[in-house]
Amino acid sequence: GAGEAGSLGPGPKRSSQVLGECSILHDRTLDIESIFPGTSTEEEQHPAPIVPHENGFHVTTLAGDPTQGGGFRDGRGTKAMFSEPGGPLAIDNAGFVYVADAGNNRIRKITPDGETTTIAGMEYRGQADGYGTWTLFDYPNAVDADPEGNLYVADTGNHAIRKITPKGFTTTLYSNQISAELEPKDPPETYLPRRFPPLHRPCGIEFCKSDGLLYFANSGAHNVIKMDPRTLEIRVIAGHGALSRVYTIFPKHSSNAGYVDGAAWLSLFNQPQDITVDPTGRVIIADTWNDLIRAVSPVGEVTRVSGTGLPDEARDGIAELATYFGVFSVAFDPHEGRIFMSDKYNNRIRSVNPD
What we know:
Blueprint: E1 2-3, E2 30-36, E3 75-76, E4 90-91, E5 97-101, E6 106-110, E7 115-121, E8 130-131, E9 140-145, E10 151-155, E11 160-164, E12 169-175, H1 176-182, E13 202-208, E14 213-218, E15 223-227, E16 234-239, E17 259-260, E18 262-263, E19 274-277, E20 283-287, E21 292-296, E22 301-306, E23 317-318, E24 327-333, E25 338-343, E26 348-354
Antiparallel strand pairs: 1-17, 2-23, 2-26, 3-7, 4-5, 5-6, 6-7, 8-12, 9-10, 10-11, 11-12, 13-14, 14-15, 15-16, 18-22, 19-20, 20-21, 21-22, 24-25, 25-26
């Protein structure tokens, strides 16, 4: 089945229409729970108390000054400052944490003992390759690492995918300028589908160790892309442009957005912000403005994993009946098969659990 997405835009003013009946394919019944309750509405003046219990984990601040509203400063622990540190973090084999510090247009590195340094970017927005901090980014949203220590950055404002080598050299793997250069130069009167999809606000990048490919949400184009960082072979695997390879460059805010499950080449998404890949090769997607968790199977079938499609205060329970308000990030736990997500406007961290 299919339904139309509601009006777009962040925050509680966003409205949405009821989605139609959907065909849901699951191997197991899933339940959802809030693992960090937060407060779902301003009217909840007396949330239930959190009863502490010892589970072997403790929360500490690794880096960042909690007394400041944001800024830039390298240093140890709370002496460091960040500004809107972006989506998924990367952790390399040595235990170093890498952060896309979006508001500072920089990529930061944090050692296990909390020492923060800047490895790429400077205060100015722009796009420039080079070594170390003699490079420019524009609101980088997410970063991930491969086993060799290379970093891959979703450079959201530049509509580009960037690579940082272990020696600190930044290159642009793929951008709209590169895609235009790769296209065959056909006569002006000849129309052929584009071979290389344009990027529009890419985010939520992940390097999949099992196949060596990059996966990311091409948010502004309402689709999901996979790319081989060695050959630059690139393909839309779900959403607008999948299979047909007929793309719209910089679509308008609502163009090509919607909600359709089924075959990947017919599927529609609404500004997906993040993805993760599970051990079976299933790509799990935070379909943000549809308020859904969705998945693309290895054979190209798109299904709804969790959510009703109605933005609402957080309701736990059966996965298909759970409600979200702005699903911005997802992560998969390979040990227990759980999906974690941030339910942004409900101020909660939620998990989808197999029975």
